[in-house]
Amino acid sequence: MTRQKRSHHKLKRAIAPYLYLSPALLIIGLLMLLPMVTVIGYSFQNSAVLRRDPSFAGLKHYQAIFADPVFWASLWHTLYFTCMSVVFHMTIGMVFALMLNSDRINPTLRNILRVLYILPWLFTAVIIAVIWRLLLEPNGVVNSVLMQMGIIGSKVEWFSSTATALHAVTFANIWAGYPLFMVSLLAGLQGIPKDFYEAADIDGAKAYQKLIFITIPQLMPIIISISLLDFIWTMQVFPLIWITTGGGPIYSTEVLSTYTYKLAFSSYNLSQASASAVVILLISLGLTLFYIRYQKAR
Amino acid sequence: MMFRIQPAMLKIAAAAWLLGATSAMAADTTLEFTQWWEPELPSGSLRAIMNDFEAANPGIKVTLVSGPYATTRDQISVGAATGTLSDVVGLDGAWVNNLNAQGALADMNPMMDASGFDKTQVADIIKVDGKAVMFPVASFVYPVFVNLDLAAQAGVTKLPSTRAEFLEAAKKMTHADKNQYGWVLPLSLQSPSGVQNDLMSWVWASGQSMMADGKPALEAKPVVDMLTFVKSLNDAGVISPGIATKTEQEKVEEFVNNRVGMMIDSLAHVNLIRERNPKLNFDIIPVPVVENYNGKRGLPYASWGIGISASSKHQEEAWKLVQYLMSEKVNAKLVSLANAFPGNVNAKPDFVTSDKAFAKAFEIFKSGYLANEFTGLPVAEDLMTQFDVQAQKMLAGEQSPEEAAASAQKGWMAKF
What we know:
Chain A has 298 residues and is an all-alpha fold.
């Protein structure tokens, strides 16, 4: 084989993997990278989208949103909503997964519970929002039950009061999202070898000791992975908040997604909306990098 | 079996090809008409009107691009930005300022002049910077609906005509222990149209304005008085709870279910209300006014507007379609289907003779004037959102009506 032929062959071998990847790369480029880059570009333009010849704005729109107190309130609400949701998703998911994995529960009852517990996952965000709006409205079932039990003295406007709205909407999201953890942890529980528990029994370990020293460490990779994914997804929740409260009352449930939406479709300020979207992207990107590093480390 | 091409078949094919070719040479002009009306009208009815238009205007075809309101709004925003707006577009008055700023809407003044269009026949022409950019084709007015049974039970014998009478009637109709309230106010930030329909309507009804010399005048007496009045209703506990997240649909539901005595709502909901509760005994009255006001009453309204794209290559044909929809008979037909009031002042929809409620509303419509000052304002929805937030703060006891008005004025001025 001549030297030229050898180098040609080498080149072909080097290119081949990229050719195989090219359809996927093309799709990712068109459907993900291009919109992202476009939005980043909009955030540096004046009157983006609305004018055919937008001028360069530099960091003006970023300065504007960072100077807006509603943006910082939205960021705080987003963090509260996300952290509370993830913690409770994990806790409830773990409790229910342990319950469904337990031999002490009758198999028929376990199957019924399995269906019941997974129900919230089957509803779309719109349905969940409507259900909770009906349940938590001032004349709704929740107030009626709590008043009959003597827990509250008068009707609470759960979604309409600044004191309760953020907690109420977080509660609805917790209800909607725990099945992801439950299903993932249940799968993890079923994969833990029985020998570990048998050995623990021989050593005289108590139930809580088995939970702390066997179950949780065995589930830790799943817990961390799902928590990170849940954190990223919950941070971007929009329909549930939009339909239940619209970001109100006043700005008490304004989160980054509703803040961005209002900038884009209520104020038609697509440049600032893009800047806000880029901030969300950066936060999500940070978490994603963390997630990837964690996965690599494993 | 062998398939043989017969000479006759060849002739037919040749004739068909020729027919196709000649008709392609004398190609029809196809107008694209984007709107949200078709899904809201009885099935096939808007297409039937377009078919009549095509029959009356040979050589012009109309393609309807239809979708829900919100989708249409987004589609029009994008079309305006990219220069791909349909030839004829359905418009909401709240959009026209933005679309005009983008140079997306054609000025219909020259078209009206060139065709000798009688401007007195239309109820309103929406102008921005002197350009005629929109005609309201159909108007949905917002009177007060009163539950007559609740009113009778509460001893309200005379339906309210002034704000003071309204407050009294609302107090009498309120029985919080039975989940029954005098009035319902939807101020959800998800759709802040409650500011326009349920708050500012009180200002316009008394012939007042929220503007002065083309600028916001929210700190002036009319708006502050309105806020003070609404606060007094709230303080009296006559407004159904959940104001800050209540939507228009929920408002109607509460009225239908006998949970509120009075609401300001679109006349377009009359049939819906009857469907949901056939036994509901209700009447329609104009929005009550300030004491001693005897002038003409402004009627809040939402409209199906129409305009022509500035980038349309068929503006002449597009104007023919607009004229057709605004003509007396066609307009009457369209608004009869939509249960709306006409954009042509001479048009008389069917339902005003066949239905008592509509007949009464039509009288209110005839004796007043259409008033919606948000039409044509920049970022109208954003202005409503800002006012909504300040009104919510006021109702939550965080600020006075004067402070709410001042904060809203400051926010609005930044947008002008």
